[in-house]
Specification:
5-stranded mixed β-sheet; 4 domains; 15% strand; alpha+beta; elongated; Hect, E3 ligase catalytic domain fold; Rossmann fold
Length: 547
């Protein structure tokens, strides 16, 4: 061995090289066998066996599967960098520069600054061949930066081509995501098409029903789902064998939150409209995601079967825009939250309870300026009576009202189940039967040596956990069979339909039928209904005045 390489190396050489080999393949590499992980391992192994002459110890492989080299936030790459900083490796091997870098600036930083600073010998096995120990002068030539620039431009072109392809698919309404939205799954026959996952879809239907028709807050919905041991979307996908992950996956406890409920209530995909392109990365080098303005989203209607109707979805959006809040200790908003407004300044009314009586006042007068508006005070009971009286009159005058109320009565409620089956408990029993069949097949696969024992035990545990959840749910549902499947508002609505009289109101009835209530200073009330009927103007004496 000559002394020349040691003299050119800018620091004393170690007595033994501790080698780490970096391997990467990207999605764009496709089925190119020459770039496969197996082939890269083989090439590096042959190089060490035939051409590496100095004493060495092989530390191991750092592998990134399906990762782009334009971003350094790759698990394998970051593990390698940690070992470099900790001094557990002093020599890095890779097949060629493009496996490690497709970002020209990153290549310059690591080859010219980071690796020399940490005394790392860097070797590429294929062209351009690099060895910062045996041929340190090559690091100062033009071949390496030119190759890096070519790799960078190739990455830019590939990124542009992929974006164009994705944009074309999005315009055609083809689903291009890695995982289907909660409530759907990818069609086995066409991965770009969504089909309904009935088990999850029934949960989505319940969320919309509770929010729109029964006045539940998002927090109350989350609490109820958690009480019924229903897994949140992330945990549910994992029980189905999907390797779903997100930036917060490691902290996911399987529980629902108001945020997860809100995301379902905002997602237009449940109406049968494909919604894509809501986020984008800054560039092919900077993979941080940023939101895209709504006018630039890709929306294609009627691409898949709806889970909720367009009208129900729009009602949920309108309720969300009202910014109703849930008071402490309550499961949902107050009776008139987000619906009651001052007729003069148009601001929302504020609520106050005094000696057991609930009053509403103009918020501008109460909280901002008594010169800008007047009191507009009114009792909650008075507003309720005004709405009840109006509905009783409108029942006689509006032919559309019975049909609307009947639609509310028929809205789906109850535990997650297949809405197309005769009963919820039948749907749960079918899920249980399917899990039992899957467990039988899993056992046969293990006995036939089609899967390992470890894989068998892992999947068996997941199946049994889901089976216990379904059994608990079935027991609870069986206890409900003697109860009505109708919503909480159904008894009084049924009476209204049958007799034309309505004795009491609840949040579900009000949000379904009433769009806006305005209070005048003289105590008169304007009520705007959601259906085709004239606004009613009611005075404190409760005599309805209809045009």
């Amino acid at each position: 061995m000559t002394d020349a390489p040691w003299q050119a190396f800018p620091y004393p050489a170690p007595s033994i090289w501790i080698i780490g080999a970096y391997i990467r393949i990207s999605r764009e590499d496709g089925n190119d066998e020459s770039l496969s992980i197996t082939n890269q391992k083989k090439i590096i192994g042959e190089f060490l066996e035939k051409f590496f002459k100095e004493p060495y110890r092989f530390q191991g492989f750092y592998i990134d599967d399906g990762q782009t080299a334009t971003d350094n936030n790759r698990p394998g790459f970051q593990a390698m960098i940690r070992d470099v900083r900790e001094g557990t490796v002093n020599c890095i091997l890779c097949k060629n520069l493009s496996r490690m870098f497709r970002n020209y600036s990153d290549q310059g930083y690591f080859l010219e600054t980071f690796f020399p600073m940490h005394r790392i010998r860097f070797i590429t096995v294929s062209d351009p061949r690099i060895d910062s120990y045996l041929r340190p002068e090559a690091m100062e030539g033009l071949e390496i930066p030119i190759n890096g620039l070519i790799n960078d431009r190739y990455a830019a072109k590939t990124s542009r081509d992929i974006r164009d392809t994705f944009a074309t698919k999005r315009r055609k309404g083809e689903f291009i995501g890695a995982f289907a939205p909660y409530g759907y799954k990818k069609s086995p026959k066409n991965k770009n098409r969504l089909i309904i996952d009935e088990e999850a879809a029934s949960v989505v239907r319940r969320i919309y029903h509770w929010y729109v028709y029964q006045g539940f807050s998002k927090n109350a919905i989350a609490r109820r789902l958690n009480q019924e041991k229903i897994l949140n979307p992330t945990a549910y996908k994992r029980t189905k064998g999907l390797l779903f992950c997100s930036p917060q996956s490691s902290q996911n406890d399987g529980l629902w939150s108001a945020a997860s409920v809100s995301s379902i209530l905002k997602n237009q995909v449940y109406t049968g409209t494909m919604v894509q392109g809501r986020q984008t990365v800054i560039s092919y080098k900077i993979h941080t995601k940023i939101p895209v303005p709504k006018e630039n989203w890709f929306l294609v209607p009627n691409t898949h079967e709806e889970i909720v109707s367009e009208s129900l979805y729009q009602k949920a959006q309108e309720l969300s825009r009202r910014h109703t809040r849930t008071p402490s200790g309550q499961k949902g908003p107050y009776l008139f939250s987000g619906l009651l407004f001052c007729a003069d300044c148009k601001k929302a009314m504020t609520r106050q309870k005094t000696k057991g009586i609930v009053y509403y006042y103009c918020r501008t007068y109460r909280e901002k300026s008594r010169e800008s508006c007047t009191k507009h005070s009114i009792r909650e009971e008075t507003v309720s009576q005004a709405i009840l009286a109006s509905l009783q009159v409108l029942m006689e005058q509006s032919p559309s009202l019975p049909e609307l109320l009947d639609a509310v009565l028929q809205a789906p409620s109850g535990p997650p189940a297949l809405s197309r089956l005769d009963s919820p408990d039948e749907a749960i029993q079918k899920d249980l039967d399917k899990i039992n069949r899957d467990l039988d097949r899993l056992y046969e696969d293990w006995k036939n040596n089609d899967i390992s024992k470890e894989d068998y035990l892992r999947r068996k545990t997941a199946y049994e956990s889901r089976r216990e959840q379904l059994r608990a749910l079935l027991k609870k549902e069986t206890g409900r069979q003697e109860e009505s499947r109708l919503s909480e508002s159904s008894p009084c609505l049924r009476k209204f339909l049958e007799t034309g009289t309505l004795d009491q109101l609840n949040r579900g009835i009000i949000t379904t039928l009433v769009d806006r209530i305005q209070i005048h200073e003289d105590g008169s009330i304007d009520i705007t209904f959601r259906f085709s009927a004239p606004s009613s103007v009611l005075h404190p004496d409760m005599e309805p005045l209809l045009p």
